[in-house]
Structures are given as structure tokens and as C-alpha cells.
Amino acid sequence: MSAHGNILVADDDAAIRTVLNQALSRVGHQVRVTSNAATLWRWVTAGEGDLVITDVVMPDENAFDLLPRIRKARPDLPVIVMSAQNTFMTAIRASEAGAYEYLPKPFDLTELLSIVGRALAEPRSRPVEKKAPETPESMPLVGRSPAMQDIYRMLARMMQTDLTVMIGGESGTGKELVARALHEFGKRRNGPFVAINMAAIPRDLIESELFGHEKGAFTGAQQRSSGRFEQAEGGTLFLDEIGDMPMEAQTRLLRVLQQGEYTTVGGRTPIKTDVRIVAATNKDLRALINQGLFREDLFYRLNVVPLRLPPLRERTEDIPDLVRHFFAQAEREGLPAKRISKGGFDAMMRYPWPGNVRELENLVRRLAALYPQEEISEEIILNELYGSAPAAKSQAEEGTGSDLPLGQAVERYLQRYFRGFGAGLPPPGLYHRVLAEVEYPLILAALAATQGNQIRAAELLGLNRNTLRKKIRELGVDIYRATRPSGSIGSLQTE
């Protein structure tokens, strides 16, 4: 049972104040509500309240300006920040200002009550506020969808830690952007960010690239060369496409992660290392482990904080924001201003985006450069996406698979997937990759339908409860997301 407390609520929206008052009072909390920051500040300085819930934007003051004063006056007072702005920078600013938790609007009341209970039950020892980095309100990550809100909140929690992060996701979802955001807004921002793509380096040179080599270590090594670990000292090392790392290099990387030191190729003296590791892959590492192609112990060393980036087809509501962002970038580079018609956006929302955000960015840049008209029509979008406009219309009317039986939709997807390799074949392990792709959304949907009840979800799926728990753990299914029923009466939003 959560501890009861005296809760101060500040929000300019009367409907939200009323609902929060009723919901919090119903579970035994004492609640005081206000519509302005001045009253909230008066209550805080008078020593009232065990917890604060506040919106960011209020008539008389922004919560991000008020938070540092609250943190100074009452460092043990937890503050939950709400916002309808729902951007990456909002989540980061909330974290850096010392907020206990950030909740994007609309939010679920069950989730809010859980956070309130956790905050009141924790020991009253809060960290000192952190100085925000002096960076403009830029958007390293774009999107306001629920899927991206989960990513933003996870990143905000990770910024002030050195935990190793494993970023998973299809090609083109923005894994390096996330890695850079972790670095540029984290405590290692003053150190270097060094990226290395394992798939782009010959196998026999990977160890030299990572750890450096001594003069004469191998044929052609005419002088000492520093490796990426040395170059990233004090900063972040981003290991992209980690699934392509050869087994011998995996063994050496594991030793570095375990011991915190390495030796150069041809060297004998151990070198201490101080870097944060962020890894990324578009492969199913568990399938590679089963095939003997990836070390299981290295996987667990790297997978401390797993972060799955959703493909664009799972966050199509972000497409308008992304398009405007890429058009603005193109305009800053000297290309003419453009906009997309409503029909054009509708066509984009129906398209499956196999190349994800990277494919969308390339399309937007092509539209900005090649078409003279200021407004891009639906016909142009269809022609660009599908080839000829008549064929495109036919495909759009037919649907991209959402109206098809599951078997046919999967068959069409696999046909497109194989065509993407031309005369070649996909990498080995396709069977396990496909099963994992289907299992994840299936289990997530079952948990969402049962509101996170694992016993009912196991019964629905026809699985043993222990089997379901194992799959949740292995696949990294986000139970936290699944327990938030969409469209619930607890969903609130302000304009």
C-alpha cells in the first residue's frame, strides 16, 4: 500500500485540476489545487506538501524556471512535471531541472497514481539539481507519438548515468541519433563522441581499429596508431552494428568491459579506459547467440539498458512533424520552402516505410530539390513512393497489408524483404528473426488487452505463465507500455 500524503497540484486547466483532485483524494491523499505558480511557490515555502504535480506552462511562470527554486528551498520535495509539449527537449529539461518524473499529456491516471505512490514511499533524499547544458532548443529527436514519449523518458533517466545501453531497431530508425543524444545531453558531453561501424571494417582490422596497434605489430604497421577506445577516452564510444563483430574481437571487448583495461595489438602494457559504451544493432542477437555467432556473456554485458527504437510504421503520427523538420533543414541549406498537401500526408501515413526515417528524409530532400511547386500533391507523393501514380493509387486503395489476412500480409512483407537483397540472400538466421518480430507485438498486444495481467495474458496466448515471463524477459517486452490502455477514461490532454 502506498503512503498517503499531502499533494500540491498546479495546472492552468480546470478539468485536469478537478480530475486529479478526485483521483488522488479517492485513494486517500490530501490535495490542494491551484492554477498559478505564485500560489504553488507560497505553499512550498510555507513547508506545505509532500509532493508537487505541476504543468510546465502556467499563466504566470514556466515550471522549469520555478523548479530550481523549489529544489533549493525544499531539496527533498519530489516534483512530477506534466507537459503537452511532448518533445525530447522537454523530457531532458525536466530531468536536468531535478524533476522526480516527467509525464507527457495525455497521460494515464493509473500510471500517475503509481508514480505518486512510489515517490511518497521512497526515502527523502534527493540529488542536487544539475545544470542544464547550454544548448539551443534543437531537436535531435523528433516526434510526439506515445512510442517516442517512452524513448524520451528512458533517455532522460539515462543521461546522468554511465550505464551501458544497447539500442535495437531496424535500419534507418535513428540509432546513432539516439546514441549522440545520450552523449551530448549526458554528463560526458565535454568528452569526445567516437563512432565505429563494425560492418564497415575488414575483420582482420577490427581489433586494431578498436584498441590501436604498436609499430611493427603486423605487416604495414609502420608507426603506433591509437584505437577508438583511446580516442573516446572520457567520452562515449558508439559500437554500431555490434552483431557483425567477429568472435575473436568479441572476446577482447568482453575483457575490456570486465576489467576496464585493454592492450594495443602488439602491445604488452595494459591501458586503463574510461569510456561509456553505447552499442546498436539491427539484428536479433539472441538468434546469433543460438547460432554460435555472438557471445552470450558479452550480450549481457552490453544489454544493461535495452532500448528498442520503433520502426516508422509504428509511429506514423510522427510523419508530419518529421516532414516539417526535414523541409526546414533543406530550407536552411538553400532549397526552397515546401509543404505537403493533406492528401499527400494521408498517402505517407498509409505507406509501410521499409527504410524508416532515413527513407522519409531522403524522400523529403528529393521533393524539396526536384519539384518547383510550393505544395506537394498526393499524386506526386504516390508517384515517388510507388513508381507510377496509377499503380500507386491501386496499391493505396488495396492497402499495405492492414486489410489482408495475417498470412498474406507476412507473405507480402517477406517478398519485399527478399527483393531488397537483389540477387543475393538475407543473412542467416531468418527463421528466428521472423519469429521474434511476430512474438514481440503478439505478447505486447496480449498484455495491453489484459491491462498487464500476466496470468490472463498467458491464458489468452495459451502459454504457461513461466513461459510467458521468460519470453517477456528475452524479448524485452515493455510491460510498462502495455499496462497503459489507450483511450481510457484517465487520458487527459490540454491544447
Characterization of the model:
The structure is a single chain. The chain is α/β, with parallel strands linked by helices and 495 residues long. The protein has four domains: 6-121, 3-Layer(aba) Sandwich (Rossmann fold), CATH 3.40.50.2300; 146-308, P-loop containing nucleotide triphosphate hydrolases (Rossmann fold), CATH 3.40.50.300; 312-398, Helicase, Ruva Protein, domain 3 (Orthogonal Bundle); 429-482, Arc Repressor Mutant, subunit A, CATH 1.10.10. The protein is built from 22 helices and 14 strands. The protein has helices at residues 14-26, 37-45, 63-73, 88-96, 109-121, 146-158, 175-184, 206-211, 228-231, 247-259, 285-290, 296-302, 319-332, 342-350, 356-370, 378-386, 389-398, 406-419, 430-449, 454-461, 465-475, 479-482, and strands at 6-10, 30-34, 51-55, 79-83, 101-104, 165-168, 193-197, 236-240, 261-262, 271-272, 276-281, 305-308, 339-340, 375-376. The protein has a five-stranded parallel sheet with strand order 2-1-3-4-5, with helices on both faces. It has a five-stranded parallel sheet with strand order 7-8-11-6-12.
Average pLDDT taken over every residue: 82
Indicate the structural class. alpha/beta
Q: How far from one another are the termini?
A: 35 Å
Low-confidence stretches: 126-137, 389-402, 480-495
Shape: globular
CATH superfamily of the largest domain: P-loop containing nucleotide triphosphate hydrolases
- The overall number of domains is 4
| CATH architecture call of the largest domain | 3-Layer(aba) Sandwich
Write the layout of secondary structure elements.
Elements: E1 6-10, H1 14-26, E2 30-34, H2 37-45, E3 51-55, H3 63-73, E4 79-83, H4 88-96, E5 101-104, H5 109-121, H6 146-158, E6 165-168, H7 175-184, E7 193-197, H8 206-211, H9 228-231, E8 236-240, H10 247-259, E9 261-262, E10 271-272, E11 276-281, H11 285-290, H12 296-302, E12 305-308, H13 319-332, E13 339-340, H14 342-350, H15 356-370, E14 375-376, H16 378-386, H17 389-398, H18 406-419, H19 430-449, H20 454-461, H21 465-475, H22 479-482
Parallel strand pairs: 1-2, 1-3, 3-4, 4-5, 6-11, 6-12, 7-8, 8-11, 13-14
Antiparallel strand pairs: 9-10
